[in-house]
C-alpha cells in the first residue's frame, strides 16, 4: 500500500454476524458496517457501502448508528484502527438467524452480497460519495 498511496487503496473485511452460541436459531438480523473511531476515509467507504446495501438488500434491516453523524458503527477492531487506508468491516446478516441464513445461502443472496461490496468499493474509488 505504501507504494500505491493510502488514497489509492482500501480495505474491506467481509463477514457474517452471529448473536448466539451456535446452539439455536437467534432473532437478531441485519447488515452492519464498522469503521475505526473518528472521522477517517473509512467513514466515506462505509457511506458508499451503506448506499449500495440499500439497493442490493431491499427488505433487509440495515443496522445503523448515527451518534457521530454517519451510519457506520465505530469500534476498535485491530484491523480497522491499524490500517493506513480507508477501512471498513461488514457484517452481512446473521448466520444464526434462519431467514438470514437461507438468503445468504441462496444464489440471489450471494449475488447481492458480492454486488453491494463491488458497487460500494467502485463508488469509493471513483469518489462518488
Attribute tags:
single chain, 129 residues, alpha/beta, Aminopeptidase, four-stranded mixed beta sheet, 4 helices
Structure description:
The chain has four helices and four strands. It has 129 residues and is an alpha/beta fold. It has a single domain, classed as Aminopeptidase (3-Layer(aba) Sandwich), CATH 3.40.630.40. Helix 1 (41-56) links the parallel strand 2 and strand 3 (73-74). The relative contact order is 0.27. The mean pLDDT is 93.
Briefly say what this structure is.
By secondary structure, the protein is of the alpha/beta class. The protein has one domain (6-18, 28-125): Aminopeptidase, CATH 3.40.630. The protein has helices spanning 41-56, 78-81, 98-105, 107-125; strands at residues 10-17, 31-35, 73-74, 86-94.
The CATH class turns out to be Alpha Beta
User: How many E strands?
Assistant: 4
CATH architecture: 3-Layer(aba) Sandwich
Distance between the terminal alpha carbons, to the nearest Å? Answer: 22 Å
Q: Numbering strands along the chain, what is their spatial order in the largest sheet?
A: 1-4-2-3
- Can you tell me the CATH superfamily? Zn-dependent exopeptidases
Q: Work out the radius of gyration.
A: 15 Å
Q: Structurally, how many domains make up the residues?
A: 1
Order of helices and strands: EEHEHEHH
Unreliable stretches, pLDDT < 50, 5 or more residues?
none
Amino acid at each position: 500500500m505504501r507504494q500505491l498511496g493510502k488514497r489509492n487503496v482500501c480495505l474491506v473485511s467481509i463477514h457474517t454476524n452471529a448473536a448466539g452460541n451456535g446452539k439455536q436459531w437467534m432473532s437478531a438480523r441485519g447488515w452492519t458496517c464498522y469503521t475505526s473511531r473518528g472521522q477517517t476515509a473509512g467513514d466515506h467507504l462505509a457511506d458508499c457501502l451503506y448506499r449500495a446495501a440499500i439497493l442490493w438488500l431491499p427488505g433487509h434491516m440495515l443496522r445503523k448508528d448515527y451518534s457521530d453523524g454517519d451510519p457506520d458503527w465505530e469500534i476498535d477492531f485491530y484491523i480497522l484502527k491499524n490500517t493506513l487506508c480507508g477501512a471498513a468491516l461488514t457484517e452481512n446478516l446473521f448466520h444464526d438467524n434462519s431467514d438470514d441464513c437461507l438468503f445468504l445461502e441462496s444464489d440471489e443472496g450471494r449475488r447481492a452480497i458480492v454486488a453491494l461490496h463491488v458497487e460500494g468499493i467502485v463508488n469509493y474509488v471513483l469518489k462518488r460519495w
